[in-house]
UniProtKB/TrEMBL annotation:
InterPro entries: Methyltransf_25, SAM-dependent_MTases_sf. The lineage of its organism: Bacteria, Bacillati, Actinomycetota, Actinomycetes, Kitasatosporales. This is Methyltransferase. The keyword Oxidoreductase does not apply. It comes from Streptomyces subrutilus. The keyword Methyltransferase applies. GO terms for biological process: methylation.
Length: 276
């Protein structure tokens, strides 16, 4: 599963017994040589869908950016500032090495700039409020418990300008008869046991982000929600897309539900540009 130079079994075990933030700090130097990095195929499909539907954007935000797999895509889609946000200092260090705090553009107009911010995705800094036209996230949602989604979505909404778009891929539900369902169910069960007997917890689950619950929480946070198929991934025998792109648009006419302080402060979360 791992390329040459990737982490060994001992390194992965140490990560799994650490907190989410510390675990990704340790894994960061070798993260891009694991299967957990978001595949270029997914990034390309999302970029194509956004460009086709929306054209270009002003400023872009990568929520839980990890080592910065999505930054190149945002640089191509966005004319202005591109920001990556993550709680793991180690992952951000790798992202900076790859993309720098650098200006970009064709020289024909105002250049954009890439920068990185260390922050909890559920409580983004006030300095980022009402700044971005597009926010994306890849492979990080397994690190958020269902009760944390309202704070996460409220934070992203606060960073977007009026009419701004929050876009992310989501897979079709896995049928119960599929071996994959049993594999991910086993993984989630093992993680629950690990977190019951070991501290600090390492929150990573595969079945805590169902499309219906996600839509409801986005709408409660003040988004209008649509989806579009990611056709490069094909369709199921039923005809349903294997992957969809969620398009959640900040709707200032829809009041956002309040987020309780308890939900927002339940635990620190670190994102990653991880497996999708």
């Amino acid at each position: 599963m791992f390329t040459s130079g990737g982490p060994g079994v001992r390194e992965l075990a140490v990560q799994a017994l650490s907190s989410v933030e510390r675990g990704y700090d340790l894994l960061a130097p070798k993260f891009d040589r694991t299967p957990f990095r978001t595949p270029d195929r997914m990034l390309d499909a999302v970029e194509e869908a956004l460009a086709r539907r929306e054209g270009s954007f002003g400023a872009g935000l990568d929520v839980c950016c990890g080592t910065g797999a999505g930054i190149g895509m945002l640089r191509r889609l966005c004319r202005g500032r591109v920001t990556g946000v993550d709680l793991s200092a180690g992952m951000l260090a790798q992202a900076r090495r790859a993309h720098g705090d650098e200006a970009y553009g064709d020289g024909g107009g105002a250049a954009g700039r890439v920068d990185f911010v260390r922050a909890d995705a559920r409580a983004l800094p006030a300095a980022l409020a009402d700044t971005y036209d597009l926010a994306v996230s890849f492979g990080a949602f397994g690190h958020f418990l269902p009760a944390e989604r309202p704070a996460l979505f409220a934070g992203v909404r606060s960073a977007l300008r009026e009419g701004g778009l929050f876009a992310f891929p989501i897979g079709a539900p896995i049928p119960l008869r599929s071996p994959v369902w049993w594999a991910v169910a086993g993984f989630d069960a093992a993680m629950r046991v690990r977190n019951a007997v070991w501290r600090p917890p390492f929150v990573m689950y595969y079945r805590t982000f169902p499309p219906s619950g996600v839509r409801a929480d986005l709408e409660a946070a003040g988004f209008t929600v649509a989806t579009t198929p990611l056709e490069p991934f094909g369709r199921l025998p039923s005809g349903a897309p294997r992957w969809r792109l969620v398009l959640a648009r900040r709707d200032d006419a829809a009041p956002a539900a309040p987020v309780t302080a308890a939900a927002a402060a339940e635990r620190p979360v670190s994102g990653r540009a991880g497996r999708v």
